[in-house]
Write a structure and sequence with these properties.
A hairpin with a 2-residue loop joins strand 4 and strand 5. A 6-stranded mixed β-sheet has the order 3-8-7-6-5-4. Strands 1-2 form a two-stranded antiparallel ribbon. With 189 residues, it is α/β, with parallel strands linked by helices. It contains 9 helices and 8 strands.
Length: 189
């Protein structure tokens, strides 16, 4: 986090890492789960479709990896799993080469809903069952959404059995709380 100075502009996303992971794994996962993720490098603004956000992140994979932090390797996009004849697709899958664990990233452009945590828990279980090896640490899930109610997130994560966090994203270089302090382009001109 120090290398890309993300610690200066972000906080930690609400998570259940302390309950689901041992120290220091819980602390390392919490450092990765920033809030908000800053996607200003995508050149997007306003409302965007989930697929468009995902495509933009893939089109700028180097910057996406940089935003996630050091140690991440891209595994796949729309990673397919067949579960008894039913098809499921994980939005983004990464592997952290220093922590030796998978990170399942689910993207939602709208406001967090409790059912998203259930789906993320399911995807983490799939990755643990099908991809994780004995040498790997527990798979971690991060749901990145456009907005959230922290109370709803807290209840959704309270009984989840997998390590998960719910973060938001922004397309702005500055958090909304600081944007009013910066003069507009017209004022500067």
């Amino acid at each position: 986090m120090i290398l890309n100075r993300s610690f200066v502009r972000t906080g930690a996303a609400p998570s259940n890492f302390a309950q689901q992971l041992v120290v220091p794994d819980s602390e390392l996962a919490q450092q990765v789960a920033k809030d908000p993720y800053s996607f200003e490098f995508l050149g997007l603004s306003g409302d965007v479709a989930e697929r468009d956000l995902e495509q933009a992140l893939m089109d700028r994979i180097t910057e996406t990896l940089r935003e996630l932090g050091p140690g991440f390797a891209f595994v796949g996009r729309q990673v397919h799993f067949d579960v008894g004849g039913d098809d499921f697709y994980i939005d983004l899958l990464f592997f952290h080469v220093e922590q030796l664990l998978y990170y399942v990233i689910e993207l939602k452009t709208g406001k967090f809903q409790p059912e998203y945590a259930c789906k993320l828990n399911f995807y983490i279980a799939l990755v643990d069952d099908r991809l994780r090896r004995d040498a790997h640490a527990d798979t971690v899930g991060i749901l990145i959404c456009g907005d959230r109610n922290d109370h709803t997130v807290r209840y959704s994560l309270a009984r989840a059995t997998s390590p998960m966090a719910v973060a938001t994203y922004t397309f702005d270089a500055l958090p909304p709380s600081l944007q009013h302090e910066v003069p507009s382009a017209a004022t500067l001109a």
